[in-house]
From TrEMBL:
Cell compartment(s), UniProt: Cell membrane
SUPFAM superfamilies hit by this protein: MetI-like
Keyword Cell division annotated: no
Top-rank taxon, per record: Bacteria
Keywords: Cell membrane, Membrane, Transmembrane, Transmembrane helix, Transport
Family listed: Belongs to the binding-protein-dependent transport system permease family.
CDD domains: TM_PBP2
Membrane topology category: Multi-pass membrane protein
Annotated protein name in UniProt: Sugar ABC transporter permease
Keyword Membrane attributed: yes
ABC transmembrane type-1 domain: residues covered: 70-284
GO biological process: transmembrane transport
Length: 293
């Protein structure tokens, strides 16, 4: 090593440090993705040998209307995600100012994000309980007993109830991202705008929004992906019930693989979901960047 030139030593060190992360990336990201695509063209029950099925899994998937109907359940998560971003941006702007005790409020709002998802699910399971849940008990105590509901047992409410859990948990993370973006905007611009007579709304519209536009795009993309990939809360709390009302595309994919032992069809469902995510990402980029260079 000492006899090598500086340039050669530098390249050896660079590739040596890159070897482990690249190897891990290939083994745990690219290879599983490639194998997923390959498995989607096969019939496999998880035990016997794989058999080539061609496009049969995709034909079966496209002919099953119920599989894609569950995507309508994900709309509740999308609505919750949009409200989550609005709330996160509001609190970020509020806590970016000179509010007294703002650091304490930042910690309190971020705290749900660091909580374990399973613990969060069971906490809300207790809160949503029809007889002894804190939400219904509170509504009854303040005279709003007409709002008492079976939050996880009503087909019309279950998806919104589950989406609220995700909104509560991830709002703090979005707030921190927005807060970091807001703090990167030079204060001189706001001072100049104030001197020119701009009010708070005009400063927000013409300075804040354009400055954090890319961050908003990122958070909206993550929100849409999260809505499409909703899994843990319906899986833990409702198992897709009542009557399949809270089943999502991912929970249906998991059930297809592990309950019905049809790994080939489940793989094709995963590929279709991946394509939907890519389509959403492309569409969002086109819509949000319309009129931009």
């Amino acid at each position: 090593m000492l006899n090598l030139s500086y340039r050669t030593q530098r390249m050896v060190l660079i590739w040596a440090f890159l070897f482990i992360p690249i190897t891990l990336l290939l083994l745990f990201s690219y290879y599983p993705t490639f194998d997923l695509f390959r498995l989607s063209f096969m019939e496999w029950d998880g035990l016997s040998s794989r058999e080539w099925a061609g496009l049969d899994n995709y034909k079966r998937l496209m002919s099953d209307k119920e599989t894609f109907q569950v995507l309508t359940h994900n709309l509740a998560y999308l609505l919750g995600g949009i409200l989550q971003n609005i709330a996160a941006l509001f609190f970020a702007i509020l806590l970016n100012g000179s509010l007294k005790g703002r650091n304490i409020f930042r910690v309190l709002l971020f705290l749900p994000f660091i909580m374990n998802s399973v613990a969060t699910a069971y906490m809300f399971d207790f809160m949503y309980d029809y007889k002894n849940g804190s939400i219904n008990l509170f509504l009854d105590a303040v005279g709003l007993d007409f709002l008492v509901s079976r939050w996880l047992g009503d087909e019309n409410l279950v998806n919104f109830s589950l989406a609220f859990i995700g909104m509560w948990k991830f709002m703090g993370m979005n707030m921190i991202i927005y807060l970091g973006a807001l703090q990167s905007v030079p204060s001189d611009i706001y001072e100049a705008a104030k001197i020119d007579g701009a009010n708070s709304f005009q400063s927000f519209r013409y300075i804040t929004m354009p400055s954090i536009r890319k961050v908003i795009e990122l958070n909206l993309f993550l929100t849409m992906v999260g809505a499409l990939e909703a899994f843990e809360y319906p899986f833990i709390l409702t198992k897709g019930g009542p009557g399949g009302a809270s089943e999502t595309f991912v929970t249906k994919t998991v059930n297809t693989a592990f309950n019905f032992n049809n790994y080939g069809l489940a793989a094709s469902m995963s590929v279709v979901l991946l394509l939907i995510v890519l389509l959403v990402m492309y569409s969002q980029s086109k819509v949000l960047n319309r009129g931009q260079d």
